Amino acid sequence: MPIITFSRQLGAGGSEIAAGVAKALGLRIIDREAIDQAAKECGVPEFALDELSYEGGRGLIQQILDALKTSPAIPSLTEMERRESGIPLSPTPPRVGFTPALPLLSTAMDDYVRMVGMVIHNMARENNVLINGRAGQMLLRDNPEALHLQIVAPLPRRVQKLMTLGSCTQREATQRILASDEARRDYLRRYYGVNWLDPQLYDLVINTWRVSIPTAIQLVVMTQVQRLVPESSPAERRSDFGS
């Protein structure tokens, strides 16, 4: 059954393509909100999910200070698995004040990213899903059922689209796009050691400057359908050609 991961540059039309593909193939779209909600239910605090999605340039020191003020105790992966299976947890005493033993944000975020990864793996088991972002192309790279897509476009094209959709200035649109690109690039590099724009991470890369949104939707749908059809033998192909 279809499992599709979507990676897209801000302003490249990825959301429109994802919606069209999901409608055509009858897929459930799993976006950031759905992933975050499932992750929170498994014990990932909201501040960590905010950091995973942050597309600005806040300094590490400020992130750490904010984390130390607001973060609850970090659930272990074992605790998370117990929560998913419904096994009661032993009560954890509240954490009060600052102690040197508190993990820095970098260590805490590593744990949170692993937990979010477990959530995505669980959602992928449902099949008939389209997973937007959160490094789905890496988490499911060994899943033979998964089709990995990336939607890109040149910067001027994306700036123009964002200005049209968001009623923002050219400068504001450019800043938002560059910050988004940097956040996505850093996320894949830090947690998975890959270049976000490496075409070898994907089965299909579509440039919406060259390919229209409707055509892109058709390409993805055709690619997915073709993957479900067994390859014919050379003799069968010759027979089909001659008929």
Structure description:
This protein has 243 residues and is of the alpha/beta class. It has one domain (3-153, 198-236): P-loop containing nucleotide triphosphate hydrolases (Rossmann fold), CATH 3.40.50.300. The chain has helices spanning 14-25, 32-41, 46-53, 60-70, 77-85, 105-124, 136-139, 155-166, 170-192, 213-228, 234-242, and strands at residues 3-8, 28-30, 129-132, 146-152, 204-207. Strands 2-3-1-4-5 form a five-stranded parallel beta sheet, with helices on both faces. Helix 1 crosses helix 10 (213-228), helix 2 packs across helix 6 (105-124) and helix 3 (46-53) crosses helix 6. Mean pLDDT is 76; it is low at 55-65, 67-77 and 83-104.
> How many individual β-strands?
5
Question: At the first level of CATH, what is the class?
Answer: Alpha Beta
* String of helices and strands: EHEHHHHHEHEHHEHH
Helix tally equals: 11
Q: Give the DSSP E fraction (strand runs of 2 or more residues).
A: 5-15%
Number of domains: 1
- End-to-end gap: 31 Å
| Percent range of helical residues | 55-70%
Architecture per CATH nomenclature, i.e. the level-2 architecture: 3-Layer(aba) Sandwich
